[in-house]
Structures are given as C-alpha cells and as structure tokens.
Amino acid sequence: MATYLHQARRAGLSRLDTKGSPYLYILPFFLLFGAFGLFPLLYTAYVSFNDWDLLDSGSHRWVGLANYREMLQDAYFWNALGNTLSIWVLSTVPQLLAALWIAHLLNHRLRARTALRMGVLLPNVTSIVAVTIVFTQLFGRDFGMVNWALGLVGIGPIDWQANTWSSHLAISFIVAWRWTGYNALIYLASMQAIPHHLYEAADLDGASQAQQFRRITVPMLRPTIIFTTVISTIGGLQIMAEPLLFASSQTPTGGSDRQFQTVALFMYEQGFREFRFGYASAVAWTLCLVIAIFAIINFLLTRRIAKDED
Amino acid sequence: MHPNRLLRLAAATLAAGVLLTACGTGTEGGSGGGNEKITLNVNLFGNFGYQDLYAEYQKSHPNITIQERTAAYNDHHRDLITHLATGSGAGDIEGVDTGFIAQMRERGNLFVDLGKDRQSEYLDWKWAASLTKDGKQVGYGTDVGGLAICYRRDLFEKAGMPFDRDQVSAAWGSGWDQYIEFGKRYAAKAPAGSAFFDGGGQLFNAIIGQAPVGYYNEDNAIVVGTSPDVRKAWDLTVKAIQSNLSAKLIGSSQEWNNGFAKDQFATIACPAWMMTKIKDQAKHAAGKWDVASVPGGGGNWGGSYLTVPKQGKHVEEAKKLAAWLTAPEQQAKVFTARGNLPSIPALYDKPDIAQYKDAFFNNAPVGQLFTTAAKQLKPQYQGPRAGDVQTTIRDALVRIEQGKQSSDESWKQMVSDVERLAK
C-alpha cells in the first residue's frame, strides 16, 4: 500500500515535471519581457492618452485622443515620417542586395576565408557613436574626405547636411555600412545549408554562376530573406542615433530645416526637449504601428517575389 | 574626433558607473563626519576654467575627490533637465547658462536654496536672475559675458586692413553697419579660405545681446515676432550673410572648432568666456589674436551659474564647493588664467584684474576692456526657454546661409517655431 502510494506520488511528480518544468524554464524570459517589454509598451499607451509634462513631477490630465489628433495635423510629424521612409529605403535596399552578393562571394573557396568572414562583421561591432562621428567627418562640408575625392573628378563641394537628398544619402550610407556585413553573415549561414549536389547538378547542366545564384541560391534563401527584410524594416524605421549625431548643430531637430529628422528623433525632441511626454508617447505608438504595417507588407512582398523565382 | 561627443559618451559611461557604485555603497551624505571619502560630480559645459582650482580644493579637503564632466551646451542642459525630471542622475553641482537659468528658476523646488549670505557680493542683476519668485537662490553666479570683438591681427594685416586695436575699434565704433562695411573691404582682399566672421547664429547673439529687451518681456511672454530689436538684429545678420562674410559655422560645433585651427574666420563676437574657447581651439595662433571693442558698445552674451540639485547625495559638501569656486578669490584666478569675467563687481577695480593684459591676445588690456563693459552692462531679462529660442533663431539663420530659404521665408518659419516652443 505504502509502495503504491509512493509510486503514485512519484508518477504525479514526474508528470508535473514533464508538464510544468518547461514553463519554468522559459519563465525568466517572460518575466524580463513583461518587465522591460510589455509593461513599458502598455504604460506608453496609457501616457499617450494624457497631457503629461515630464518636468512637472508627473502631473497629467486625461485627454483621450487629443495627442493623436494633434500629431496627424502636425506638419513636422509628416516631414519626419517622410524622411524616415526615405532613409529606410535608401539604406535597406542596397544593403540587402550587397549583403546577398557578399555572402555569395564568401561562400566560395577563398584565401583567408575565415578572416574575411569575420571581417565583414567588424563594422557591426564598432560603436554606433564612433562610426557616425567618423562618417560625419568624412562627409564634412569644408574638409571632408568625400568632398575631396569628389573634387578630384570635378564635382562639388557638397554641403552634405544642408540638402535633403544629400543628408539622406550620407545617413543611409552610415546605416548600410554598419549592417551589410551582419546581414551577409546571416545569408552565408543559410547558404551553407543549401545541399551542394544542387550546384553540382547545375554545373553538369552547364548553368552559369549567375544562373545558379538566381535559380538555386535566392529561392533556397527565401525564409532568410524574409527574416532579414523584416528585421531591417524594424531597425531601419527606428533610426535615431545616426541623424542625431550627424547634425553639427547638436540638436534633435535634424538639420536647420528638419531635413533629416526621423520619427524616432522627432519623438525624442518632443519627449526630451519639449518634455511633452504624452505627445511623444503618441508618436512612439504610431511609429510602432507604422513599423508593424511595413513589416507585414514586406513579409507578404518578399514571400511573393521569392515564390515567383521558383 | 569630436571631443564633445566623445566626452558625452564618456560621461554616459561614467554616469552608469556612478549609479552602480551609488547603489552598492550607499554612503550617507551629510552625516557630517567630514572625514569620510566622497566624490563630488561637477557637470559643466564649455570650459569654466576650474582644473587648477579642483587640485587646490582637493589638497585642502583630502577626503573629497572632484570629478568634472563636460558636455556640449545643448546636450548638457537637456541632460540636466531630464535628470531633474526623473529625479536621479544629476551631478552634485550643475553648471547652468544664462539662456537656461530662467527654466531652472521655475523649478526652484528641485534645487538647494543657497541662501542670502552672498547677495551683497554680486552684481544685482546677476543675483536676481537666479532667484525664484519666493526668494530662494538656486545658483551662485560664476561669470558674466560682457561683449567685445576678438580678431586676427595677422589676417587683417594680410588683407591690408588696419590691425591696431584702437584703429579697429574706431573703424566700427559707431555700429554694426560699419562692421559689415569693414568686413566687405576685408573680404575683397582676404587670404583664401578666410571669411570675416564665424557664423550667423553667433553674430545675431551678439547684436541682440545689446538690446534692452531680448526674446522675452518681463511677464515671461515671448516677443520675438514683434520686437523691433529682434528684427533689427535679424536684418543686420542677414545683410552680413548675404555679403558673403560668414564662414557658415555653427557655434561650438566640431566644424567650428576646426575653423579656429584652419583660420576660417578673422573676427568673432567675443564675450569674456569666448576668450577661453579661443585659447583652447586656436593654440597655433597665440599672439595673433587681439581684442577690439564691440560695434555700438555695451551688451552681454552668456555667463553662467553653479547650482546644487536637491537629488545629490552630498548636498552640504556640494554647497561648500560651489560657494568656494564662485568666491571672489577664485573668480579672480579664473579670469587671469582663462578669461571668464567675474560677476563680483568689487573685483573690477582690483589692479591685478583691471590692469590685466593677456599675452595670447597680443597683450590686449582685456582687464580694462571687460571690466568697463561689465560696469556699463544693462542686463536683459531672460525667459524660461531663452536657450531654445536662441537655437531656433540660429537654425533659421543657418537656412539662409545654406541657401535653403530667403530671409522672409526663414523669418516666418522661425517665428512660428518659436511660438511653438512657448506652448
């Protein structure tokens, strides 16, 4: 009787163990996510429905959707949104194409292959601040190296910060420089999972390198391409440090005429220069929504394009 | 590398470190022991010229270590306000510029009241500007700006212009129009790559600094759109820009610092504290700089305060240090070593200050020049967002310098941007 009970209890415990312990193992993630992810998200939503002065020791007043209404009529918000999309497209598209090509090259037998593979990740491990400062100097108006090089072929000098197009180009370049290698490594990893016999068969059939790349590599990478596109969209639409540090004025307005102020920077300006906590939160939530929409569109698009390749 | 940005980065790292250690040790500030080892964080912008003074103070107070962190002008004040808002992260002592003192004054409850003991030492208006409505003193004045024009003798000489300081002062003595005319003649024969002045934003600050009313009236209402003085300063600055006299550099930016090293401009509007910056940035040109009086005479730009935020851990010690750093003897030392003009009028007649000549500026009688200016100075009332208004106007002038907008377009946008600040 006693043994029976004992066995039953052990069985119960082991059932609890198999059923319950997995939840226990993943609990730390959800605790951290709840504290640092979910709670701020929901709290920001709550703040966005208030008129909230950060300086006035947190005094606030419920205003419903007023912050959102104001934002939709705010020309500076739309300006920032346009800049964000422009910088995002200018940085993400060339970045992913280049990453794909670099990964393709690295996938071949090369001298010092490991060193090269590590090398492409180097820009990503350097500090974003340091990178931006260096590039801001390269893109300097009076003594920048880019203008010097352009001068050799008779172009310029260009005041990179002054114009909308030139500032977007320069900022996109900084972003792309930092993230191309990272994406290349992700592509490379999944390229190596492509069965080699596919290429051998293609070789036998006389397919060229370019054909192999288009007909085998790209379709086989479809899930990875979707992944990188979505991740780059999320990152690209949140760009803030680069335009903030690119401005020699040291202010979050993104240039003299807000020509390179992104939405994230606009949010920062409203939150931490104007101390309009509620309004900044409304911008934050809108940005989150915009990102979600674009990520979904991209997901659908990249899925379709890769399918057409089949 | 950009020293300001690197410093900022360093400051952020430091701040994180300080927070961590603050959590770990949990020292009780103000428990009075006096021998317990403490670190006082002093957060500043620009150069207050305190390095030697720290060493002196630490020697006489062996239990105290002073840690100075310096950030760029706008970054520093934005960080301070954020730290005040969130209740942590501020230094034991925080420097505040004239442009932001009114904003801090409005949050007087977040600062330690420094009392009335030293009122009689200070210039009346300097003392009043950091006084809250209910009579609490939030900051000890450090320096006042005054106003002059610093210029490069050697470049003037190369362009065939008069370069003796009395002649130069006389040439534009009657006003800014003459300064611009002088500039046009300079530009005609100037060495390649050398503009007449550094940038529109800085020139505007100097001109508006001479007006009796600046961006605010005394009811804290912004008058930028309606004040004739603001429009006059704007028009003069635009005229100077459109005469191609500007090096188009933004004050305190990295490019501006480079501008000193590369001789990109021949004159700069020069409050006393600007001399400190010139000495830092233009080491290669020692002796080639000189100081002339400002067109039209008078005026003030800038000048700062040391405040003690209540959230600090060592409020008593911080108060003592702030009082010591701003005491007459120390203000005198900073003036002769670095150039920042004292805000304590009793010093103005002391021979070692009134007769002080600066070798870096070709032995210009800066003591006599700036103390005279300070005595005649008619203070301008500063409202809560004065610093941000100034930045907004600067950006508007940059738009003209960059050829993005006409004067009228830029003015209109600037006025609406400034009104937005007041919301």
Topology record:
The complex is a heterodimer of chains A (310) and B (423).
Chain A (H helix, E strand, L loop, with lengths): L1 H47 L1 E3 L7 E3 L3 H7 L2 H32 L6 H7 L2 H4 L2 H11 L6 H8 L11 H28 L4 H9 L4 H12 L1 H15 L4 H6 L16 H10 L4 H32 L2
Helix pairs in contact in A: 1-14, 2-14, 3-8, 3-11, 3-13, 8-11, 11-14, 13-14
Chain B lengths: L2 H23 L12 E8 L5 H10 L3 E8 L1 H14 L6 E5 H9 L17 H6 L9 E6 L3 E5 H6 L6 H7 L4 H14 L5 E3 L2 H9 L19 H15 L11 H8 L3 E6 L1 H10 L7 E5 L9 E5 L7 H11 L2 H10 L3 E2 L8 H4 L11 H11 L9 H16 L5 H15 L2
Parallel strand pairs in B: 1-2, 1-3, 6-7
Antiparallel strand pairs in B: 3-9, 4-9, 4-10, 5-7, 5-8
Helix pairs in contact in B: 4-17, 9-10, 9-17, 17-18
Overview of this structure, please?
The complex is a heterodimer of chains A (310) and B (423). Chain A is 74% helix and 2% strand. By secondary structure, chain A is mainly alpha-helical. A two-stranded antiparallel sheet of chain A has the order 1-2. In chain A, a hairpin with a 7-residue loop joins strand 1 (50-52) and strand 2. In chain A, helix 3 (75-106) runs parallel beside helix 8 (164-191). The longest helix of chain A is centred in the first third of the chain and has 47 residues, at 2-48. By secondary structure, chain B is an alpha/beta fold. Chain B has two domains: 3-144 and 302-347, 3-Layer(aba) Sandwich (D-Maltodextrin-Binding Protein, domain 2), CATH 3.40.190.10; 148-301 and 380-421, Periplasmic binding protein-like II (D-Maltodextrin-Binding Protein, domain 2, 3-Layer(aba) Sandwich), CATH 3.40.190.10. Chain B is built from 18 helices and ten strands. Chain B has helices at 3-25, 51-60, 73-86, 98-106, 124-129, 153-158, 165-171, 176-189, 200-208, 228-242, 254-261, 272-281, 315-325, 328-337, 351-354, 366-376, 386-401, 407-421, and strands at residues 38-45, 64-71, 93-97, 139-144, 148-152, 195-197, 265-270, 289-293, 303-307, 341-342. Residues 9-33 of chain B have low confidence and may be disordered. Classes of the chains: A mainly alpha (310), B alpha/beta (423). Chain A binds chain B through residues 54-55, 57, 127, 129, 133, 136-137, 140-143, 159, 162, 245, 248-251, 253, 256-257, 272-275, and chain B through 1-2, 4-6, 9, 72-75, 78, 81-82, 84-86, 107, 250, 252-256, 258, 262, 264, 388, 391, 394-396, 398-399, 402-405, 413, 421. Chain B: Residues 403-423 are annotated as: Disordered.
